[in-house]
């Protein structure tokens, strides 16, 4: 007996016991099947889903924060307040990235939806989750580098620039991997709003 058959049997028993007078037996399964059919039709048409749109909004926030960080890190290091501006821009990237991870990995996130729709991408999803962890660590290292430079009062901007540029490169590659996964799953260009 499959899980759907078991659910159908349970609904029939509940209906026979009179626990739900207004719901026909099997109606819950029929609704779920209809939702799956609509999702499949959307995918065939290359339409987006609410989770894709939420991820797209977070993606836009992340690229905006990354652009600010890149602009600050490329500005003259000898300028007054350069290191503080880098720290602020790095914090913006950290916040945007944390929001990105929440909307992609959360129980109502994009990655669980992709896994449900296209289980063949399970390995790619695991790679993306591992990248999330690695990028989180790179954010921490960049922050620690800034703290260390502030603490010792160094005038050399290179350690900070090296960490931040490496971080931005990793984020860029991660965004490309995510765009490819979304396109392969939904036939939707999530990067179109970038």
What does this structure look like?
With 194 residues, the protein is mainly alpha-helical. It has 2 domains: 1-12 and 25-45, no CATH class; 53-193, Four Helix Bundle (Hemerythrin (Met), subunit A). The protein has 7 helices and no strands. The protein has helices at residues 3-17, 27-45, 50-74, 82-105, 110-117, 122-152, 158-186. α3 packs antiparallel against α4, α3 packs antiparallel against α7 (158-186) and α4 (82-105) packs antiparallel against α6. The radius of gyration is 23 Å and the shape is elongated. The termini are far apart. The model has no long low-confidence stretch (mean pLDDT 84).
CATH class of the largest domain: Mainly Alpha
What fold name goes in the CATH topology slot of the largest domain?
Four Helix Bundle (Hemerythrin (Met), subunit A)
What average pLDDT do the residues reach?
Answer: 84
Report the major sheet: none
Blueprint of the fold:
Layout: H1 3-17, H2 27-45, H3 50-74, H4 82-105, H5 110-117, H6 122-152, H7 158-186
Helix pairs in contact: 3-4, 3-7, 4-6, 6-7
Defining key terms:
194 residues; mainly alpha; 7 helices; 78% helix; elongated
């Amino acid at each position: 007996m499959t899980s759907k058959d078991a659910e159908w049997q349970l609904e029939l028993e509940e209906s026979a016991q009179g626990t739900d007078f207004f719901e026909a037996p099997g109606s819950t399964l029929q609704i779920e099947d209809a939702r799956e059919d609509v999702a499949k039709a959307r995918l065939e048409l290359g339409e987006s889903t609410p989770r894709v749109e939420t991820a797209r909004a977070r993606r836009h926030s992340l690229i905006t924060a990354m652009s600010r960080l890149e602009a600050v890190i490329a500005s003259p290091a000898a300028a007054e307040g350069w290191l503080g501006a880098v720290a602020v821009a790095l914090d913006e990237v950290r916040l945007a990235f944390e929001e990105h991870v929440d909307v992609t990995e959360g129980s109502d996130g994009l990655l669980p939806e992709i896994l449900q729709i296209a289980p063949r991408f399970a390995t790619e999803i695991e790679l993306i989750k591992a990248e999330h962890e690695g990028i989180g660590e790179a954010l921490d290292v960049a922050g620690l580098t800034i703290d260390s430079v502030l603490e010792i009062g160094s005038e050399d901007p290179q350690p900070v620039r090296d960490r931040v540029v490496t971080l931005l490169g990793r984020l860029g590659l991660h965004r490309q991997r995510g765009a490819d996964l979304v396109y392969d799953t939904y036939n939707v260009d999530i990067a179109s709003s970038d």
